[in-house]
Amino acid sequence: MKIEVVLTEAEIVQELTEAVEARDLPEKFFYWSPLAVRAWLSRAADPGFAGLHRAWQQLAAKAAWLLEPFGPPIHTISFGAGDGATDRLLLEAIRLSGREQKYYPVDASQTLLEMACAGGEDLDIETAGIKADISSPMHLVFASDAAESPKLLLMSGNTLGGFDPLDHIKHMAQCMHGDDRLILDAEIYQTNGSAPRVDALLQFAFAPLAALGVSADDGEVRFEHKRDKSIAGLHVMAAYFRPDRDLRIAAPGHEVLVERGEHINLNFNYRFTAEALHTVLVERGGLRILEEIPSPDGRYLLVVCSR
């Protein structure tokens, strides 16, 4: 198994201590510890994601069209690949087309990256993982340079929504050249008022703190919905932890005192109207949308983009 390390475990540990001190946990820590990985895998298995998987299967059925600009081998780089399960819906279609391919999953989680690499190898695909922080523009460029253009760049599971989408799409667009294709899905804000399953999010949001010894009895995880006024139709669901008593959290290196009533910012997740997603991709990212595939349940929109 080949994995190139750009983000070391020592760097992650140091950043975790700094994040606890700042009361603000970056996205990578929700996929890093064994407890967080288990929480993410449990959430990913939720039946609510069936519509998203169906959208990727519909794209896989269009593999012949998607691969028209590409000569062998097909290079696929997946940013925030997780365990690679969604990637493999498309990789399998490419394999069945008889085209030679190479797969480069990118993730900050060593455990999930190993799972993605193992899954690619099980399909007899030449695979090389890249352990990197996709919130870093430098790491994005490094990972995107793993293969020559044209290449497929993937972002599945509403990865774009895990960061500031206006900034992140600009950095992603800068990684694209020539006939490259960016394929991403986004979670669509439900205007009928239906909310995501908070119970499914709770364990996932709390996992990084639980891995540091914080108990559910020590406080409460709360979710807050906000409108991002920078673009009409942009919404964010933010989670935070509010301790009910003074806590001494055993961060790597030393304890951090968090007083009763303070807030520790956990993860956030952007959701988009279809119009807002178009604005982010086209106006802010400078991309062209070549294809759109809505999920059957209307909760996700899968798009194929070029420069």
Radius of gyration: 19 Å
Shape estimate: globular
Q: Determine the N-to-C terminus distance.
A: 33 Å
Note poorly predicted spans. none
- Biggest sheet: strands, sense, closure? 8 strands, mixed
Please give the count of helices. 10
Which bin fits the share of residues in helices? 25-40%
Spell the H/E element sequence.
Answer: EHHHHEHEHEHEHEHEEEEEHEE
- Give the structural class: alpha/beta
The number of strands is 13
Instruction: Report the average pLDDT across residues.
Output: 94
Sheet with the most strands: spatial strand order: 1-4-3-2-5-6-13-12
* Proportion of strand residues: 25-35%
Features:
10 helices; three-stranded antiparallel sheet; 307 residues; 28% strand; 13 strands
Kindly describe this structure:
This protein has 10 helices and 13 strands. The protein has 307 residues and is an alpha/beta fold. Strands 1-4-3-2-5-6-13-12 form an 8-stranded mixed sheet, sandwiched between helices. The chain has a 3-stranded antiparallel sheet with strand order 7-8-11. Strands 9-10 form a two-stranded antiparallel sheet. Strand 5, helix 8 and strand 6 form a beta-alpha-beta unit. The radius of gyration is 19 Å and the shape is globular.
Topology:
Elements: E1 2-5, H1 9-22, H2 34-44, H3 50-60, H4 63-66, E2 74-79, H5 85-96, E3 101-107, H6 110-122, E4 126-131, H7 137-144, E5 152-155, H8 165-174, E6 181-187, H9 198-210, E7 219-228, E8 234-243, E9 247-251, E10 254-258, E11 264-272, H10 274-284, E12 288-294, E13 300-306
Parallel strand pairs: 1-4, 2-3, 2-5, 3-4, 5-6
Antiparallel strand pairs: 6-13, 7-8, 8-11, 9-10, 12-13
Helix pairs in contact: 2-9, 3-5
